[in-house]
Amino acid sequence: MTESKQPIEFYFDFSSPYGYLMNEKIDALASQYDRQVRRHPILLGVIFQSTGTRPPVDGTSSKSKYMWHDFARSARHLGLPYTPPSRFPLATQNAARAYYWLNAQDGALAKQFAQAAYRACFVEDRDISSPEIVLEIAAKIGVDREQLATALQTPEIKAQLKDECEQALATGVFGSPHIIIEGEHFFGADRLPQIEHWLKTGGF
Amino acid sequence: MTESKQPIEFYFDFSSPYGYLMNEKIDALASQYDRQVRRHPILLGVIFQSTGTRPPVDGTSSKSKYMWHDFARSARHLGLPYTPPSRFPLATQNAARAYYWLNAQDGALAKQFAQAAYRACFVEDRDISSPEIVLEIAAKIGVDREQLATALQTPEIKAQLKDECEQALATGVFGSPHIIIEGEHFFGADRLPQIEHWLKTGGF
Predict the structure, then answer these.
(1) Residue A114 · residue A99 · CB < 8 Å
(2) Distance (Å, rounded) from C-alpha B103 to C-alpha B148?
(3) pLDDT attached to residue A4
(4) SS3 call for B41
(5) N or C terminus of chain A with fewer C-beta within 10 Å?
(6) Contacts of B123 by beta carbon, 8 Å cutoff, 6+ apart
(7) Which residues of chain A have pLDDT under 70?
C-alpha cells in the first residue's frame, strides 16, 4: 500500500503576475513528486483589506518600477511568455467564480480554464475582469457559455468565493502566489527552488 | 586587452537577514564571473522613511510570522548557519560607519568585517547596534580598536553614511539586499538564481 500524499494547496489571484508564473510551473513540479495541485483562486483585495497590507505595486515608486521590470524578467528567467497587462490590477471575481463552478464538475477542465484565463491576462493582455471575456475564454475550451453565465450570478458561487477568501485568511495566506505543502507555506514564484528542494527531500 | 567588467553593487543593511544570506553568497558568485563586489551598507530606516515603505517584518501578522520562518528556511536552503536574532530590528549605523572607514584603508579587511558583523548578528545573536560590540568584532580581525572608536565619532564618517543612503535612494534602492549589475536591479536573496543567470548570459 502506498501512502497517499496530500495535494499542494495553491492560492492565487487571477490578476497576480507571479501567480501566473506559478500557475505555469506548479503542475509539472507537483507531478514529478507524485502530488496533485489543489487550486484556490482568491481576491487579493479582500486579503489586503483584512491584513492591512498594501499591494506591492501601487504607483510610480522605485519598488513599483522594479516590480514591473521583475515580472517580465522573472518570466524570461523561467522561459515563459509574458506581456505587461495594460489594465492593472483587475477585478477577478468572475474568473475565480468560473473556476470554482467548473471545478465542481470537472477538475481537469477547471485547471485548463485557470491556465487559459491567466494566459489571456498575461500573454494576450485581455481584460479578464469582464464577464463577457471570462465566458469567451471558457467557451473556447468547451464550457457551455449560457450555463456558466447563469452560474456566475448564483448566490452559491458568490458565497463559495467568499468562503475561500475567509478560509485562506484563516490559514495564513497573505498574498499571491501562496503555496502550502502539508502546513509548510511558500510565498512567491521565487520560492519555486525551495518548493522543489522541499518536495525532493520531504522537508529540510 | 580584456574588457574590464564593472563591479557588482551590493546595497544592504546590517540588520537584514536576507542581506546576511546575500553577503555569504555574492563574492563566490561574482568571482566565478570575474566580477568584484562593491558593498554599500545603508540604513533601511532612512530608505523606508523616504520611500514611504513599511518594513516587511512589523509585528505578529501572518506575513511577519511567515518571514521569520522563511529567513531560517532560506538559510537552510542555501546551506548557511542562521540563528534568529533576539533583537530586531537593530540600529546599524555603527557597523555601517565602521565598514566605510575600514574600506577607505583596506578593502579586503572591510569585506572581512562585513562578514564578521553579519555573522555576529545572525549566527551568534550578538547586539551589533552596540558600538562596543562593533569595536570588538573589528578588533578580533586585527583593526585598531582606539582608532576605529575615534573614527566612528567623526563628522566625516557620519556624512559618508548619510551620502551613501542618499545616493542609494537616488539610484532606486528600496530594500535590502539590493544588487545592481550595470544598471540592472535585483532585490532580495531569492534573486540569486536570476543574478547567476544574468552573469552567465550577460543579460536575458
Answers:
(1) yes
(2) 12
(3) 75
(4) strand
(5) N
(6) B81, B82, B83
(7) 1-3, 56, 58
Nearest Cβ partner for B193 among A61, A63, A193: A193
The interface pTM score, or ipTM, of the predicted complex is 0.95
* Nearest-Cα residue of chain B relative to residue A201: B77
Instruction: Provide the grid cell at A127.
Output: 481584460
Residue A181: phi, psi to the nearest 5? Answer: -120, 105
* Closest A-chain CA to B50: A61
In angstroms and rounded to an integer, the radius of gyration of the C-alpha atoms of chain A is 17
Angle at A195 between CA A101 and CA A45, to 5 degrees: 45
Tell me if A53 and B63 make a contact (CB, 8 A cut-off). yes
Query: What pLDDT is stored for residue A199 in this prediction?
Result: 98
What count of CB pairs under 8 Å joins A to B?
A: 65
pTM: predicted TM-score of the whole model, two decimal places: 0.96
DSSP secondary structure letters along A87-143: S-S---HHHHHHHHHHHHH-HHHHHHHHHHHHHHHHTS---TTSHHHHHHHHHHTT-
Inter-chain touch B69–A185, beta carbons under 8 Å? yes
CB < 8 Å to B173, chain A: 62
Which residue in B has a C-alpha nearest to residue A52's C-alpha? B61
- For residue B105, what are the contacts with CB-CB under 8 A and spacing of at least 6? none
